Amino acid sequence: MSIAGAAASADLTKICPLVIHRTNPKYGADETLVVRVKHVEFGGVKPVIIGGPCSVESIEQTLELAHAAKAAGADMLRGGAYKPRTSPHDFQGLGLEGLEILREASLQTGLPIVTEVMDPRLVEQVGEYADMLQIGSRNMQNYPLLTEAGRFGKPVLLKRGMAASLVEWLGAAEYIAKEGNLQIVLCERGIKAYPSGEYSRFILDLNVIPALHAETFLPVIVDPSHATGVASMVEPASRSALESGCHGLIIEIASEKTGVPQPKCDAAQAISPTTLGRIVEFAHSRAGQRSESKACAV
Length: 298
Ligand code: PEP
Ligand code: MN
Hints:
Elements: H1 6-15, E1 31-33, E2 35-37, E3 40-42, E4 48-52, H2 59-72, E5 76-78, H3 96-109, E6 113-116, H4 123-129, E7 132-135, H5 143-152, E8 156-159, H6 166-178, E9 184-188, H7 208-215, E10 220-222, H8 224-228, H9 231-243, E11 248-252, H10 273-286, E12 294-296
Parallel strand pairs: 1-12, 4-5, 4-11, 5-6, 6-7, 7-8, 8-9, 9-10
Antiparallel strand pairs: 2-3
Helix pairs in contact: 1-6, 2-3, 2-10, 5-6, 9-10
The structure holds phosphoenolpyruvate (PEP) and manganese (II) ion.
Manganese (II) ion binds at residues 54, 226, 252, 265-266.
């Protein structure tokens, strides 16, 4: 059953036949493809919670937050080594050093890593360290990057462009799928729509979750941190996203210890590990209640 607009529905079969129910008969109308990142499964009954800093800033900061995320019950660790910043004068990330730090944090905690790659020339480098490659909102339509990430073969977290339609988003997923890689998790991270910017950074589009479930078998997660940009909005947005049927959340956290420096990036939206723990508890309490789709292996 399709709930997208008629024009969009017609386009989808031509634009992205590999990732939609109607043209990929391998997955039944109510099935979700299970995307595996080491022992973590996206698309099953248990929502996947990813926690960590916006950017990797130091070994101390990352290890503290990785252990805190683990203790809060998170399944995976996030953190940017390469950061897409509005100003070229702002902190751009630690690059390779950041990837080394993420590796150490993953070794110590057992949490698989998702981290962003922005440059097609760096897919191999980032992919050597990441368990899952993140394609950020600003790069959703960077087609050479999507193709390289698809070829690399590791699972991909594909964030929605901040002004992208459902068709454009699934078209981007198709670039990855065309390279033989269906290990794709979609991530709604807020869109620019009136009145974004007035009281929140973006508008969290929860409507897109059931719309995606109707069209595609790919798992869908939500990023309430970038969608709101406001720490106090992250917990209610997380609950609402889970109620709307998403398969997981990716959330930015910061230290709650006194005397620790503020994050260099996105400090206003970072929640404490304690709040993350409450969100994880809520997510687990909802796990048995997901019934709208069956999980399905590749
Ligand atoms: C991020 O998750 O680090 C990030 C920059 O998010 P987005 O691409 O959604 O802005
Ligand atoms: Mn951020």
